[in-house]
Amino acid sequence: MRTLSRTPSVIISGGGAIGLSLALHLLPSLLPPSSITILDPGHPNHTRNSAVLSAGGVRTAFTIEENVRAGKEGLEWFRDGGWERQIQSVHSSIGNPTSQSIVSEITPSPTSPSSILQFQPGGYMFLTSTKEGLSSLHKTSKIRQSHNLAPSLILPPDKLSSQYPYLNTSDLLGASITAGDGWFDPWTYITQTSKFLQSLGVTIIPS
Fold first, then answer.
1. Longest C-alpha distance within the chain, in Å?
2. Is 46:24 a contact under the CB 8 Å cutoff?
3. Which of 19, 38, 48, 59 would you call most buried, defined as having the most Cβ atoms within 10 angstroms of its Cβ?
4. Rounded Cα gap, residues 197 and 203, in angstroms
């Protein structure tokens, strides 16, 4: 492992989606980039980051309110442009020509209006064969509504079967579908955020 040439103010363990997002949120008002070091076992190829090994799912279907709030913030970050706005804000404060080129790559334009994260709002479906599970699906829907999210679509087995004839619903009591949830491209998120942070002076080293 490379020896640090200075003592950082903050050391972040892990350079995946969470570690990089944390560093991005610390800039620029809380800490200067040079005071942040990220220890990442997958650096520089990101081969060991769990985010790039996943489908990049973001959902709000939980029975715990705190998780619903976290999922909602995730949608605002990955689906609704929060990531791009934060990068543009940080660049406006402490950017340089190198970071400008990265901002240009990720910023939607008239010729390419979609986010490079390619969020796909395919929704999530949860199936249950128990009364307890069905109760949880209704509970999840109510919690989502309390956070101004669309209620889950709760389907009984007959409607589920008619809409999705390839499913065997003989042992099911119901299902829920959460519109608006979906998945994004984690590889693009990891690589572009990593490049941007390093262009500002954040240190990322293998651990």
1. 65
2. no
3. 38
4. 8
